[in-house]
Design brief:
19% strand, 8-stranded mixed beta sheet, two-stranded parallel ribbon, alpha+beta, 18 strands
């Protein structure tokens, strides 16, 4: 991707963020992360932001809700991705209703139009394995190089003089999974292990959500659409380009390692349906972490390009402004909660009786639990198990608690 295009896309994302209300944004000495999914139309050569997320917080394992009404992970990348799912569902419904859509019907399923591609922008590198990179020179030169046991400094493509090399690394707060080999925390570049699946950084009650490096790698390997949408789509949806912001540490080699190579020796082009490209823009997101911004903002924002351009703010995985009395009400949950995304899935199947029969078999839609429905995504589950066993080797183990139903009376 040419630098001018990357800068144009980043500028669109930042401009949209700046036009949003102040609620959920950093105040005083706070910082946040901005992530967006951008749609590119190859025919009209136009770009538009279709989902936006901000944030850097997660809830602890003890606060997870079996009703699917609380968001476990409120990092910007996750909010942007979940907002994108809502955008995809709306386009599926538009196809059914013969409205303008990025999909067209093929058999009983929905296929993305050939002229549409997707780009992921983030103001900084994803937490976890991709954020482990060697510091070079003074602090204003940081983040341009990584050295592994298989690659010498002079072979790196980051253009920093090797004589200024420091054997220290940028560290990640993301933690190795319990019951696996842990970071040795030795001085310099030996502080971390490379290639590890990690849970999100944080103090206190530990989260079970994996790092954004691990989540992005999963999207690259099995598609960003997830299990439920995979049953509705003719084929998975992949991100074509990943753009990262300036003013923060960056290294292409660590991205290649964390997102494409990891623990797998297979040729990338044979293993991946779509091999994405990574690039860095020259645009600096104004609310990045810095000397004058050392505290993470409490809130997270999700904005979705829908018929009404929907915006919500979250704190602790719940919608901001909801009273304590209504905090556990399903009707008050965030639009991107498991509960509400499952509702979108139901709405499609209620409109498509044949597809509903294919997905549900002899069972009634209203009786199928959320976690059981996800296991019905045969293609997705097969691809995911192969990816987990060959690429990641291990994955976090979450309790199988999301056994809620929607109980639609019409089903």
């Amino acid at each position: 991707m040419p630098n001018i295009c990357a800068d144009t896309i980043a500028e669109k994302c930042i401009n949209l963020y700046e036009k949003l209300p102040k609620s959920g944004k950093p105040i005083n000495n706070e910082w946040t992360v901005l992530s967006c999914v951008v749609q590119y139309d190859k025919v009209s050569a136009t770009y538009e932001v279709v989902s936006l997320g901000t944030g850097s917080k997660c809830i602890g394992a003890s606060k997870m809700s079996p009703a699917g009404n609380i968001l476990n992970d409120s990092h910007a990348e996750t909010f942007a991705r979940r907002g994108f799912l809502i955008y995809l569902y709306e386009n599926v419904m538009n196809t059914i209703e013969n409205k303008q859509s990025i999909f067209h019907k093929e058999g009983e399923k929905f296929r993305l139009r050939d002229n549409i591609e997707f780009i992921f922008y983030s103001s900084q590198m994803p937490c976890g394995d991709a954020s482990i990179m060697t510091k070079m020179g003074e602090e204003d030169d940081i983040g341009y190089m990584i050295i592994s046991s298989k690659r010498e400094a002079q072979d790196d493509n980051c253009h920093i003089e090797t004589k200024r090399q420091k054997l220290d690394i940028h560290r990640t707060g993301a933690k190795c999974l319990p019951h696996t080999e842990q970071d040795p925390k030795l001085p310099g570049k030996n502080y971390h292990l490379l290639g590890q699946v990690r849970t999100k950084p944080g103090r206190g009650d530990r989260t079970l959500s994996v790092s954004c490096s691990d989540k992005m790698a999963r999207w690259i390997h099995v598609g960003i659409q997830g299990a439920l949408l995979d049953m509705l789509l003719y084929e998975p949806i992949f991100i074509r380009y990943f753009i990262f912001g300036a003013g923060v540490p960056y290294c292409d080699i660590s991205l290649q390692r964390a997102l494409l190579k990891r623990n797998c020796d297979d040729a990338i082009d044979k293993r991946l349906f779509c091999v994405p490209e990574f690039c860095r823009c020259s645009k600096i997101f104004p609310d990045i972490r810095g000397e004058d911004k050392k505290r993470p903002a409490a809130g997270s924002i999700v904005w979705i390009k829908t018929s009404q351009n929907f915006t919500e703010v979250a704190v602790h995985g719940q919608k901001l402004g909801v009273t304590k009395k209504k905090a556990n009400s399903l009707s008050s949950s965030l639009c991107i909660s498991k509960y509400n995304i499952y509702k979108k899935f139901h709405e499609v199947l209620l409109k498509q009786k044949t597809l509903c029969s294919i997905v549900c078999g002899e069972e009634l839609l209203c009786n199928i639990e959320y976690n059981k429905m996800k296991r019905k995504a045969v293609r997705y589950q097969k691809n995911w198990l192969e990816t987990r066993d060959t690429f990641f080797k291990i994955w976090t183990s979450k309790p199988d608690i999301w056994n809620f139903c929607l109980n639609n009376k019409s089903t």
